[in-house]
């Protein structure tokens, strides 16, 4: 930045510059990078005009803009009306900015507060979530119109409680049981390869091979699925020849709790719902969702008192409830229904209509092959 001439007094001297204003203005014109500070005369003029304006004596045209006259010299009533309309429009947009196309607060008329993430679930819900706006899911917004739009994404939805000691059971043992349960949930329900039908090796690795018949039953179910041996009881799987996922996000909501177990160890209770958006594998862009809720009771027994593999979980109970999946097909895959599809041949649904998002509902009971009230 250029300096002022050397004969200008230092700041704070109380003196006015000795250089005439016209000389200083010429210097500024010749040195474009110089600071464009008002001269003493300019400051005096500005102050005089400010005082006149305060007294209502401002000269015509001062800060008034162009004269509002038409081509014939008469007043431009049209511009005045337009000004009123613009002012009204600004007020409306200020109250509802979503009226602007592509506004900064989200697309369409969606309420940004409605899409804000829910806090983690800390207690069993007592009712189903309220109805969302009846929006059709799309490739860009696969969870539109679903309560799950506000749920956590994937693993972020499986939040472990703070581990504490349980009598003689150390805090470290409790933390290990919680981490093993979380790994089982993640690998069985969120691993992209498992969702596409691959063998869930990582999930199986946390289970105790010494637990009677469990791994044998699961291996049989994965190798030769049937109504009696269904891998969907513990794993979420889709046939890649039939459907493919929309994006990489699976919405998750639920909770994990722990207590003393029956085998001198840690008992863990997990209750989670997973929402999977999919499209048909034939290139269709129609989006639908399958909702799977899982309830698992596992225990990490005391290996010094029981014949168990250290660090491996024993499954005490595992129940699942799949919403929007054919319940009369037993090939080891979830089979979502699409709104445009005609009813498939086979058994007519005999069970009641249920809300798959209702986490207050008890599952594990045989309700027959029913329908869902929403997806």
From TrEMBL:
Lineage: superkingdom: Bacteria
Biased amino acid composition, Basic and acidic residues: 1-10, 23-56
Region named Disordered: 1-74, 113-146, 334-375
Annotated transmembrane regions: 78-95
Compositional bias ranges of the Low complexity kind: 113-138
Keyword Transmembrane: yes
UniProt keywords, alphabetically: Membrane, Transmembrane, Transmembrane helix
The protein, known as: Uncharacterized protein
Species lineage: Bacteria, Bacillati, Actinomycetota, Actinomycetes, Kitasatosporales
């Amino acid at each position: 930045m250029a300096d002022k001439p050397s004969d200008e007094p230092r700041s704070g001297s109380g003196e006015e510059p000795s250089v005439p204003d016209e000389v200083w203005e010429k210097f500024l014109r010749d040195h474009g990078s110089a600071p464009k500070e008002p001269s003493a005369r300019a400051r005096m003029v500005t102050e005089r005009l400010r005082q006149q304006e305060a007294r209502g004596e401002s000269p015509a045209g001062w800060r008034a803009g162009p004269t509002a006259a038409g081509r014939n010299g008469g007043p431009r009533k049209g511009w005045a009306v337009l000004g009123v309309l613009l002012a009204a429009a600004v007020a409306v947009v200020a109250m509802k900015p979503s009226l602007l196309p592509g506004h900064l607060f989200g697309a369409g008329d969606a309420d940004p507060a409605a899409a804000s993430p829910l806090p983690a679930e800390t207690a069993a819900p007592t009712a189903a979530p309220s109805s969302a706006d009846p929006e059709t899911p799309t490739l860009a917004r696969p969870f539109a119109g679903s309560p799950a739009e506000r749920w956590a994404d994937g693993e972020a939805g499986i939040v472990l409680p703070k581990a504490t000691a349980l009598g003689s059971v150390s805090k470290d043992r409790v933390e290990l049981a919680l981490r093993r349960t979380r790994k089982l949930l993640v690998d069985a329900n969120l691993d992209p390869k498992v969702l596409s039908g691959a063998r869930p090796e990582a999930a199986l690795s946390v289970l105790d091979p010494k637990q009677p018949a469990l791994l044998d039953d699961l291996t049989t179910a994965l190798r030769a699925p049937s109504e009696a041996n269904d891998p969907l009881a513990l794993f979420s799987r889709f046939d890649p020849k039939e459907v493919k996922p929309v994006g990489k996000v699976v919405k998750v909501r639920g909770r994990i709790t722990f207590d003393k177990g029956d085998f001198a160890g840690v008992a863990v209770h997990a209750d989670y719902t997973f929402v999977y958006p999919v499209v048909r594998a034939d290139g269709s862009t129609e989006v639908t969702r399958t909702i799977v809720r899982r309830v698992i009771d596992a225990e990490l027994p005391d290996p010094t008192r029981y014949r168990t593999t250290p660090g491996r979980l024993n499954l005490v109970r595992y129940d699942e409830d799949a919403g929007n999946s054919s319940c009369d097909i037993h090939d080891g895959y979830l089979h979502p229904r699409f709104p445009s599809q005609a009813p498939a041949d086979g058994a007519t649904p005999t069970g009641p209509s249920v809300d798959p998002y209702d986490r207050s509902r008890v599952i594990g009971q045989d309700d027959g092959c029913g329908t869902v009230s929403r997806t």
